Structures are given as C-alpha cells and as structure tokens.
C-alpha cells in the first residue's frame, strides 16, 4: 500500500465539499420575467429624472420670474416716490407763483375793480 487506494481517492473526493458557493447566480437573480422589468424600471427612473429635471427647470424659471418682478416693483416704487416728490415741489412752486400773481394784480391799477356806479353818481 504505497499510495492511496482508489477507494481513498473516492472518499476524499466525496468529502471535499466546498463550504462557499462559487456558482454564478446572477442569471437566476434576473429571470426572463425580471429582465423584462429591468428596462421598465430603468425607463421609470429616467422618467422620474426627466420629471425632476422639468420640475427643476420650471422652479428655476419661476424663481427668475419672481426676481425680475421684484426688481420691476422696486423700480416702479422708486418712480412713484420720485413723482410724489416732484408733485409736492410743483404744488409748492404753484402756490408761490399764485401768491406772486395775486400781489402783482393787487398792486396794479389795471387789475383794480372799478366801481362804475359810484363814479356815475
């Protein structure tokens, strides 16, 4: 009995069972049915991404529009304030001019009211 006998070889072959499973189960994970779902899931993900992108673009557009409207409102508000100041200034100038014209008219004999009845009598 110089070497292992044939029975010993068979016994050792039968008893050497690997504890880890080295087989490839990836084909079992994606059965033909689940493989047909994969493109649908990927399309759903792309649809969600496209929807998110569209939603993000819409939000960005709305934010830009709001900012533009805020700037327009600020400009209009500043213009209203400037017009109010100009209006007050013009009212004040009109009062001064009105008073000046009244003083000139009262000082001039041309604008004096004539009492014709008292002169005729």
Automatic annotation (TrEMBL):
<feature type="region of interest" description="Disordered">
    <location>
        <begin position="1"/>
        <end position="37"/>
    </location>
</feature>
<comment type="subunit">
    <text>Homodimer. Interacts with ARL1, ARL2 and ARL3. Directly interacts with FEZ1 and UVRAG. The interaction with UVRAG is reduced by amino acid starvation, but the complex is stabilized in the presence of FEZ1. Interacts with NRBF2.</text>
</comment>
<keyword id="KW-0472">Membrane</keyword>
<feature type="compositionally biased region" description="Polar residues">
    <location>
        <begin position="28"/>
        <end position="37"/>
    </location>
</feature>
<protein>
    <recommendedName>
        <fullName>Short coiled-coil protein</fullName>
    </recommendedName>
</protein>
<comment type="similarity">
    <text>Belongs to the SCOC family.</text>
</comment>
<keyword id="KW-0333">Golgi apparatus</keyword>
<dbReference type="GO" id="GO:0000139">
    <property type="term" value="C:Golgi membrane"/>
</dbReference>
<dbReference type="GO" id="GO:0005802">
    <property type="term" value="C:trans-Golgi network"/>
</dbReference>
<dbReference type="GO" id="GO:0005829">
    <property type="term" value="C:cytosol"/>
</dbReference>
<dbReference type="InterPro" id="IPR019357">
    <property type="entry name" value="SCOC"/>
</dbReference>
<dbReference type="Pfam" id="PF10224">
    <property type="entry name" value="DUF2205"/>
</dbReference>
<feature type="coiled-coil region">
    <location>
        <begin position="59"/>
        <end position="93"/>
    </location>
</feature>
<keyword id="KW-0175">Coiled coil</keyword>
<keyword id="KW-0963">Cytoplasm</keyword>
<comment type="function">
    <text>Positive regulator of amino acid starvation-induced autophagy.</text>
</comment>
